[in-house]
Amino acid sequence: MPLLQLEGISKKFGQVVVGEEITFQLEQGDSVGIVGPNGAGKTSLFAMISGDIRPDSGDIFFEDMNLAHMTPSSRARAGIGRTYQVPRPFEHMTVFENALLAAQQGGRLRGKKSYAQAFAALDRTGLGEYANRPAGSLMLLHRKRLELARSLAMGPRVLLLDEIAGGLTDLEVNELTTIIRQLRTEGIAVVWIEHVVRALLSTVDRLLCLAAGVIVADGAPQEVLASEAVRAVYLGGKIINEVLPQ
Predict the structure, then answer these.
(1) Which neighbouring-strand residues pair with 24?
(2) Strand, helix or coil for residue 116
(3) Which residues sit opposite 60 in a β-bridge?
(4) Which residues contact 49 (CB under 8 A, 6 or more apart)?
(5) Domain coordinates in residue numbering, the chain
């Protein structure tokens, strides 16, 4: 049985289609990238998986659980972690308190175990030295790392990453991809929406391209980026040509 399975997921907001019969599955340790133009429905797809919005039709299964009637918090406790494009820390709490809250509420840990998991999440994301700082004082890179740390503190089995490389320098992106590659060795399945395509190419084994709520390509990263369907959705290939040699 797949770890995560989407079957015919569809969603409209009025006349705007953000998902149309989306079907794919994820196994333990998979690393999948999602690309597509702005407005393609990528973040809405994550919102349907995490429970922030409900699809109009279709089913989402996490192992043998149908997520249809599960709240976002229940899905997080079940093992679905998520980051957001714009980091959402509790700004008046310390960096450590943010991670600890995730370990306790999302990871359902208490006492020493919750403290240990929170510290481990900060250490692996390079935030150990910032543990006692107010989260609201962090610069962009460290806010994004805290977003990742909070998700890791919950002990996820599926991790949904939403453009966490955007706005970072090349060195910072490299540091981030090193962390994400390590997650796969622990059996965590990663689905990563990203416009910094080179970050995906160094990390994922599979790429999906979403356009107008429809999966237009699914397969090996280089093959997907080279496909005519993907080049067409990127306005004549302007973005793709920056990634692939002609």
Answers:
(1) 6
(2) helix
(3) 6
(4) 4, 6, 60, 67, 75, 80, 82, 160
(5) 1-79+158-181+188-246, 84-155
Q: What is the pLDDT of residue 51?
A: 96
Angle at 120 between CA 118 and CA 124, to 5 degrees: 125
**Tokens encoding 55:** 């699809």
Query: Of the CATH numbers 3.40.50.2000, 3.40.50.300, 1.10.760.10, 2.60.40.10, which one belongs to the domain with range 1-79+158-181+188-246?
Result: 3.40.50.300
- Judging by beta carbons within 10 Å of its beta carbon (0-12, 13-18, 19+), is residue 110 exposed, middle or buried? exposed
Q: Is 81 exposed, middle or buried (0-12, 13-18, 19+ CB in 10 A)?
A: buried
Separation CA 215–CA 104 (nearest Å): 36
Give the neighbor-by-neighbor strand order of the sheet with 214-219: 80-82, 158-162, 189-193, 31-35, 206-211, 214-219
Per-residue b/e over 38-67, b at no fewer than 16 CB within 10 Å? eebbbbbbbbbbbbebebeebebbbeeeeb
What's the pLDDT at 184? 83
> N- to C-terminal Cα distance for the chain?
40
- The pLDDT > 90 percentage for the chain reads 78
How far from 48 is each of 2, 84, 140, 213, CA to CA, in Å? 18, 13, 26, 12
Q: pLDDT digit string (tens) for 7-31?
A: 999 999 999 999 999 999 999 999 9
Three-state SS at 108 = coil
Assess whether pLDDT exceeds 70 at residue 238. no
